What does this fold into?
Amino acid sequence: MPDIIYCRSAAPWTGWFGPARARAVLIPALLAALIAPAAVRAAAPAASTAARTLVVCAPGYPGTTEEAQPTMDAFARAAQTAAGWPASSLHAVYDETLEGGRARLKGGDAVLAIVTLPFLLQEGAGLGLDPRYQVVEEDGDSETWSLVAHRGTVKSPATLDGWEIASPAGYAPVFVRAALSSWGRLPDNVKITFAPALLSGLKRAASGANLALLLDSAATTSLPTLPFAADLEIVARSQHLPGSFLCLVGKRLAARDGAAILKGIERLDKTPAGSEALKNMRLVRFGPVDRKSYDAARAAYAGAAGHDGAAGATR
It folds into this structure.
């Protein structure tokens, strides 16, 4: 029985499995679902009966697996049908923590994953993640990260000496450095922290604290709605980066099964059930990976990892 576990990692998004993000507070309403595996058919071939899971992982995002279960269930049904897999043969799981998502992906049943770029760059090599499709959301398939600080205080990367940078992507500190590499090299003693909830940090930054925040495009767009927006400014932006990916996990799927599920997922937007499942997740389709953009992101990450003494970029 195939299982799907979704591991989505850093940026605040509209939400694949739930209502639109609450822009006023810069927190996405991302929900997910844990779908109990169905019984394995004894007569089915061994390759089709082994437990298979799609892992969706979103560290720091609100929502629970129970709240998003209907949406995840519908996605799993649509994907398995499009792939020609038996009913109840695909399992979908969401985990909102880095540790939980990583653990699920290490499980032998995890064959597919949906992850963001920060997660893929940091965890991809160790988990054997092989990006096959780029996720196209309602607002596109790319992401631009913006560094926000108190107005007039940050003139260059050197200004951040001894500062803190907080971000929903802060669980992947090398990614934060890589995202800002086109602006310049961050000082060695910048403290990078994971901040899934941004409002309190933005208030601190607006009041003049030595704190900058790295926001995704959705959160950046929401900045003008804040009562203290006049005290903040964008001091740097990343290049246009890929948003998120659907990946194979290692070589756990037989070639025939892997080709079938990938083809099925690719054409989800062309079926009524698939289109509805994607719409409920606020997705449009799964498209080809922008290799030029992805390779540029990997190169920037590798450069930042070399400086930081870290590793983890995907192959």
Summary: The first strand starts at residue 4 and ends at 6. The chain is about 30% helix and 20% strand. The radius of gyration is 20 Å. The domain at 143-240 is CATH 3.40.190.10 (D-Maltodextrin-Binding Protein; domain 2).
